[in-house]
Design goal:
The protein has four helices and two strands, in the order ααααββ. The chain is mostly helical. Strand 1 and strand 2 form a beta hairpin. The chain starts with a helix and ends in a 7-residue tail after the last strand.
Amino acid sequence: MNDVLGTSLGLFVLVTIIMFGGAAWQTGQALAQTWRPFWHMIVYGLMLAATDRLLLVLLFGGRLLAGVPFLVAAAVLVGLGSFAYRLTQARKMVGQYPWIYERDGLLGWRERAGREGS
């Protein structure tokens, strides 16, 4: 497990999921609120993963140039940020344009039924 996570499971949950996952969640929400394109979340998620790895190395003696733990952290952080991005985007589309769109599940929206002129 340490080879995949680069550290113990407890440290991975505390640092990567709780601390940096919260930052990724806030990043996804901020990007969606300001109408930024989705690919920005991928770039910011990779930067968060690099910072996460650096913090784990400096504070807890992890391996710096470990590719698999970086990819695992990046997948978790980009995934959390992407979920927050899409959730916020769906909420924003329906809230800002209620005469055009209605909710379609948790992460989606659709054009209102019976709407003419489109």
